[in-house]
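Fig. S4 source data, part A: sequence.
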Amino acid sequence: MATSVREAMHDGCECIGENQSLLDAAKRMAELDVGVLPICGDDDRLKGMLTDRDIVVKALAQGHDPAATRCVELAQGTVHWISVDASLDEALSTMREHAVKRLCVMDDSKRLTGIITEADVATHAAEAKTGELVEAIAAKPPQHF
């Protein structure tokens, strides 16, 4: 069983640029077979998270052109993150507190180094802790990032 975020997270997380289009993001998600991409700014800092659901519900369903809509336009809300050196228990606590299914993982210089997801928790944490996380997420309205 993993005890740290570093052990449980997905390494090598890719960002989509804040000025790239939603079409670019959708293509990249398909290439990587993922449903979420962090949005990083020209300053190499985290600006938000973009989910496949955001593209469909907040852009396509609203009549926005995915080729003309910049990713940063959907970067809403607070992006929750955790230090790469944090314990898995800290990650679980943060995920429960904010009812989120994933956290960005940042290094000491506040650069994105990975993502830890609900699935990572299920794989690396005790079953009871995973259950607590799932219950907390189900009890609050989803933020989808």
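Fig. S4 source data, part B ends here. Helices lie at 5-8, 22-32, 52-59, 88-98, 118-124, 127-139.
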